[in-house]
Amino acid sequence: MPEVWSAPVRFVECDQQGVAFNAHYLTWADEAVNAWWAAAGLPFGSLAAWGLEYYVKATALDWVSSARYGETVAVDVEPAALGRTSLTLVFTVRVADRVCCTIRTTYVATADGRPSPWPDEVRALISAG
Amino acid sequence: MPEVWSAPVRFVECDQQGVAFNAHYLTWADEAVNAWWAAAGLPFGSLAAWGLEYYVKATALDWVSSARYGETVAVDVEPAALGRTSLTLVFTVRVADRVCCTIRTTYVATADGRPSPWPDEVRALISAG
Amino acid sequence: MPEVWSAPVRFVECDQQGVAFNAHYLTWADEAVNAWWAAAGLPFGSLAAWGLEYYVKATALDWVSSARYGETVAVDVEPAALGRTSLTLVFTVRVADRVCCTIRTTYVATADGRPSPWPDEVRALISAG
Amino acid sequence: MPEVWSAPVRFVECDQQGVAFNAHYLTWADEAVNAWWAAAGLPFGSLAAWGLEYYVKATALDWVSSARYGETVAVDVEPAALGRTSLTLVFTVRVADRVCCTIRTTYVATADGRPSPWPDEVRALISAG
Question: What is the pTM of this model?
Answer without folding.
Answer: 0.93
